[in-house]
């Protein structure tokens, strides 16, 4: 059976939950056409997170990889366009590491672009009533590290597989502790991801619609 690999990240920065994993685990064994979802919980740790993701890719040999992460402060589900080859941590990871201006892959390309049909996926999510966008930055913390490590591996994979990273907003329970911060219910994000997954499976070449940013 064909596989879709969806990953989430453990809680970090003194949070009790991470919406990326709360959402990913609810998709475990979900069927999309002739493909079934497998999930993996990644540590919020530089180096180890990318290693665990690559191990899961090797085990499952998926046709599609969606790595999810938390982006507190964002109001939309953000499909990341690009990962850059730098770790520059504002806060320590869950092992207390806080790299500054360190390449993820020494001598690696400056950046990798997502290989997902981002515009088609965003359009499908919006049509499903879920706020979504193409994002131009995955940050410089563990989420960007994961995305870069994944795409570096996939660029060298010997089988066809597309992948990328998706940031999700806080859950309402998290936003309650951050007055003014936007949030999104798990059910809403799930509905959007279901639409996005179907769009990714059914779109060979991305659609040509705007998804850029002014700043």
UniProtKB/TrEMBL annotation:
Single Gene Ontology BP annotation: proteolysis
Record key words, sorted: Cytoplasm, Hydrolase, Protease, Thiol protease
Compartmental location: Cytoplasm
A GO molecular function held by the record: pyroglutamyl-peptidase activity
Gene Ontology CC, one term: cytosol
Class of enzymatic activity (EC top level): hydrolase
InterPro entries for this protein: Peptidase_C15, Peptidase_C15-like, Peptidase_C15-like_sf, PGP-I_bact-type, PGPEP1_Cys_AS, PGPEP1_Glu_AS
Reaction catalysed by this enzyme: Release of an N-terminal pyroglutamyl group from a polypeptide, the second amino acid generally not being Pro
Assigned EC number: 3.4.19.3
Annotated catalytic residues: 80, 143, 167
HAMAP family: Pyrrolid_peptidase
PANTHER family with a match to the protein in the record: PROTEASE FAMILY C15 PYROGLUTAMYL-PEPTIDASE I-RELATED, PYROGLUTAMYL-PEPTIDASE I
Subunit structure: Homotetramer.
Function: Removes 5-oxoproline from various penultimate amino acid residues except L-proline.
Entry's family note: Belongs to the peptidase C15 family.
Protein name: Pyrrolidone-carboxylate peptidase
Gene behind the chain: pcp
